[in-house]
């Protein structure tokens, strides 16, 4: 399959699929610098990946161009993680990869082989909500709720990374999470409360 | 009179639990069978005409179902300038007409939609569309001369003219009243009767009043108009006419008058604004 995909002279270069895949994932408006002749139409290669999602081992065959976000949402049905801008501006898609927060629209599924991923679906322990989730409800840190999963994942990372020392510090750390409803004050309240409670996040 | 119902209910938002656990559903969470995905190809010039779109390569790309551009986009009733009988369409849509004609009005304007079976396929095919343009020089600077010529040729009153966002954009009702007061121009004066210098003074007053309003954080009359940190703007304290009907003008002490005008209220000093 891979053979038909690209021009002859480029085959070896292209086999390092990650680079091409990165090209494909960039919104079309931004990539006009790429010479079109480099790419000819054909079936895109697929790859098998294995990774850990919320503690569960998942094996799947994926389009090499699929972002981790689209893989989670479209292929696996983990729709708790939201797609906002698809460009790393809004933070709605933030998840934890090996314990670090990350915009899942900015990484490809194939780059996450054997990584451990935690999404909003994985932070509660069964019926028991995570302290951050409880605080978000208590502080009413949302309106429409679309940015909330990303805010919560980022908020947890904020405390874990030791960046919740003051409201200003929280605001700075949370700058990558946009809330169109403007619930910022309550979001900062929620994170401060969890931090003050001393609970393990 | 009936007792007012409280606006704020006790307890958490009804769907708060769903929202913090990721279970709340939005449009994109609904699974539709045989869903196709669309990706826009956007213009790479700021102004001009699309000369040609070559879809041949992109159409052959894996998974592509169709490519929609102004060449084949179904006509949308609200976009037509004329009704079938040749008269003007009174309900014409004045916003952006998507994929409607070959005109490019801004950089990044959607000019074609690639429809494919997956978003990855659509993204890939969007790189294969070959578009050629006839470029034109764009103008983004504010052209004072042009605006003055436009206003001075009008037979309407000056206030609706400066509120007309097609002539000059950005002036709202409060700042229009303030600018007119600063320039000493009555809101109901006909544009034609004003001099070039008066209009120039008016526009410069509008600029000045908005500059100081931005410095003060805007004009907050109630809870709704606050910034994201919950702070009010303080410009309402510096207003000279708006919302001051019956109070003395700070220039001449004549009482400020309020009139209903074009569905809005206008405030002015009957003595120093003529």
Quick check: average pLDDT of chain B? 90
State the helix count of chain A.
8
Mean pLDDT of chain A: 86
Largest β sheet strand count, sense and barrel closure of chain B:
3 strands, antiparallel
- Structurally, the number of domains of chain A stands at 3
Report the span from N to C terminus of chain B: 46 Å
What is the H/E order of chain A? HHHEEHEEEHHHH
CATH architecture of the largest domain in chain A: Roll
Multimerization status: heterodimer
Report the uncertain regions of chain A: 1-32
- What is the approximate shape of chain A? globular
- Within CATH, the superfamily of the largest domain in chain A carries the name Beta-grasp domain
Which CATH class of the largest domain in chain B?
Mainly Alpha
Number of strands of chain B: 8
Could you give the count of β-strands of chain A?
5
Looking across the biggest beta sheet of chain A, what order are the strands in? 2-1-5-3-4
Gyration radius of chain A, rounded = 19 Å
In whole angstroms, the N-to-C terminal distance of chain A is: 46 Å
Morphology call of chain B: extended
Task: Return Rg of chain B in Å.
Answer: 26 Å
């Amino acid at each position: 399959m891979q053979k038909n995909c690209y021009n002859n002279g480029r085959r070896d270069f292209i086999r390092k699929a990650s680079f091409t895949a990165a090209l494909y994932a960039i919104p079309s408006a931004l990539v006009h610098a790429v010479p079109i002749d480099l790419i000819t139409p054909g079936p895109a290669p697929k790859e098998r990946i294995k990774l850990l999602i919320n503690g569960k081992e998942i094996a799947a065959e994926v389009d090499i161009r699929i972002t981790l976000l689209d893989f989670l949402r479209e292929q696996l049905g983990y729709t708790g993680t939201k797609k906002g801008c698809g460009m790393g501006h809004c933070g709605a898609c933030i998840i934890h990869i090996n314990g670090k927060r990350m915009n899942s629209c900015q990484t490809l599924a194939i780059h996450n082989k054997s990584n451990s991923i935690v999404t909003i679906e994985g932070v509660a322990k069964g019926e028991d909500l995570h302290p951050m989730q409880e605080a978000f409800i208590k502080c009413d840190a949302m309106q429409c709720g679309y940015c909330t999963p990303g805010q919560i994942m980022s908020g947890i990372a904020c405390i874990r990374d030791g960046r919740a020392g003051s409201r200003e510090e929280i605001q700075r750390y949370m700058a990558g999470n946009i809330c169109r409803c403007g619930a910022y004050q309550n979001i900062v309240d929620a994170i401060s409360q969890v931090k003050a409670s001393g609970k393990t996040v | 009179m009936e007792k007012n119902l409280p606006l704020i209910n006790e307890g958490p938002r009804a769907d708060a639990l769903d929202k913090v656990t990721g279970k709340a559903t939005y449009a994109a969470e609904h699974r539709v069978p045989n869903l196709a995905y669309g990706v826009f190809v956007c213009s790479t010039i700021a102004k001009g005409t699309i000369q040609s779109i070559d879809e041949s390569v992109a159409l052959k790309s894996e998974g592509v179902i169709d490519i929609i551009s102004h060449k084949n986009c179904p006509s949308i009733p609200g976009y037509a300038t004329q009704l079938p009988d040749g008269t003007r369409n009174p309900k014409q849509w004045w916003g952006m007409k998507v994929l409607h004609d070959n005109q490019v009005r801004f950089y990044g304007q959607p000019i074609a939609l690639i429809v494919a079976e997956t978003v990855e396929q659509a993204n890939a095919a969007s790189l294969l569309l070959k578009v050629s343009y006839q470029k034109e020089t764009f103008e983004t600077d504010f052209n004072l001369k042009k605006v003055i010529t436009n206003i001075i040729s009008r037979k309407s009153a000056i206030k609706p003219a400066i509120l007309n966002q097609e002539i000059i954009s950005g002036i709202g009702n409060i700042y229009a009243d303030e600018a007119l007061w600063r320039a000493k121009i009555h809101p109901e004066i006909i544009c034609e009767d004003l001099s070039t210098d008066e209009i120039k003074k008016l526009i410069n007053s509008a600029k000045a009043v908005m500059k100081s309003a931005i410095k003060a954080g805007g004009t907050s009359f109630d809870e709704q108009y606050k910034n994201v940190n919950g702070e009010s703007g303080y410009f309402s304290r510096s207003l000279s006419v708006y919302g001051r009907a019956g109070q003395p003008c700070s220039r001449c002490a004549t009482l400020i008058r309020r009139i209903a005008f074009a569905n809005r209220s206008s405030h002015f000093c009957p003595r120093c604004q003529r």
